[in-house]
């Protein structure tokens, strides 16, 4: 009973704060308190409805529906991200299990991790001569580090009891990896994958401003059109998509939460 | 085959089921670069030394000693989870080289895999040890052992839904399901409350009566050792712990936990154990 009331209350508060925000935004814009010609919330909502009501039109690369652009970005992220996970998990397991792998790979990880993935964009363009593949490549580089580091950490800090059980039963190395280590570190892998996805979704917007097409390019294009309200529309859509992606991983993490 | 075993292979009487011969274990610190340079002898921590022990088939042996005396190290060596620094472990005339399904191990913290249900935990052990068995066979056998510890109804529960005592019963079922000759238990009831502990001790005794296995139990409870064992092995305080005494517990079985405490023989051994443990514990506490 109490809980039901508090959820309803939270909902009401959220709606109220949104209304206040929209009204304040409109007032500030209308009065020109910030800068002249700053789009108000009404105008932004109007264009949001216009973009969302017909999201998938295609009038050439500089005039795509926002849904089409969103799907282009999502496709790049999903391909680059999946490749990164396919590399990061086995590599992370290797680094967690072998001191040799750890000490030979860790310096590169530590050195490359803090570099903005956008620094790889020219390298990608030079090597691949293709903006699509370069986008995927940049997302690959972005996504690899958090998953790799979390996986390696998970293996290194695995409960030794599980390994002792496996060893005492005479399990082979491959059985131990498949049936014990991988399930045991699922929470770590998923935590890493969640961070990777979050960063990939941040980076794709910036990368696409330089690459053409996609939601990031949409923003750049609307900047050239000096249509700030369309940029706000894109920001809302990007935020919403990122939120859904994050919630999906949150859901998976709950499923694989073994804590007692 | 060495000379000894070829001589004795004709009869089983000439060697015990489990023999520890001059067993020693030193834990060395991790090798640092400087150690390669100096070629100096690495100093290490000697947990146990010169352990000689014979254990007969189907007997119940408890190893008792002050904390930090290397009891768990000894059990890990017998389980094959660690390699001894010196000496060897011989089972049925064969020196062991590592872990094997002839020995079932039970850990203090149950060591159940939290992502598997109770029955899947047992099936994991069975699949690992008997890869040729069919799925139905494995399931049937896992169910049989869950029934043995009275947890058939909990077969689809996850470990986090079980109490500590239930978890340890699952671990016992898992260890026995692979049909070992020997059950190695590392303070299996140490984390349980007193009532659950008594219940599980009785349970273990009845399981042991039905499934003929040799049990090596690490404990620091004198009462537990007396209630369960045929023989109690006393260890000195570490480091470099040795076996200071072996005591036969010739109390009649089945033992009743209330009646046994009136038995003068029981009290005599108990006094002796208490004196020893107190002396060894004092040695530990007063050094540090």
Q: By CATH's scheme, which homologous superfamily of one domain in chain B applies?
A: P-loop containing nucleotide triphosphate hydrolases
The fold-level CATH name of the largest domain in chain A is MetI-like fold
> Distance N terminus to C terminus of chain B?
46 Å
Assign the structural class of chain B, choosing from mainly alpha, mainly beta, alpha/beta, alpha+beta, or little secondary structure: alpha/beta
Low-pLDDT segments of chain B = 1-12
Alpha carbon gap, first and last residue of chain A: 27 Å
CATH superfamily of the largest domain in chain A, called what? Answer: MetI-like
CATH architecture of the largest domain in chain A: Orthogonal Bundle
Number of strands of chain B: 10
List how many beta strands of chain A DSSP finds.
0
Name the assembly state: heterodimer
- The amount of helix of chain A comes to over 70%
Low-confidence stretches of chain A: none
Instruction: Return the CATH architecture of one domain in chain B.
Output: 3-Layer(aba) Sandwich
Largest sheet composition of chain A: none
Strand residue percentage of chain A = under 5%
Q: How many domains is the backbone of chain A divided into?
A: 2
Instruction: Count every helix of chain A, treating DSSP H or I runs of 4 or more residues as helices.
Output: 11
**What is the structural class of chain A?**
mainly alpha
Shape of chain A: globular
- Summarize model confidence as the mean pLDDT of chain A: 94
Compact overview of the structure:
With about 260 residues, chain A is an all-alpha fold. Chain A is built from 11 helices and no strands.
Structure description:
The complex is a heterodimer of chains A (260) and B (288). Chain A folds into 2 domains: 38 residues; 217 residues, MetI-like (MetI-like fold, Orthogonal Bundle), CATH 1.10.3720. Chain A contains 11 helices and no strands. In chain A, 80% of the residues lie in helices and 0% in strands. With 288 residues, chain B is α/β, with parallel strands linked by helices. Helix content of chain B is 38%, strand content 22%. In chain B, the strands form 2 sheets. A 6-stranded mixed beta sheet of chain B has the order 6-7-8-3-9-10, sandwiched between helices. In chain B, α4 crosses α5, α4 packs parallel to α6 and α5 crosses α6. The longest helix of chain B has 24 residues. Chain B is globular and about 55 Å long. The N terminus of chain B is likely disordered. Chains A and B meet through α7 and α8 of A and β6 and α4 of B.
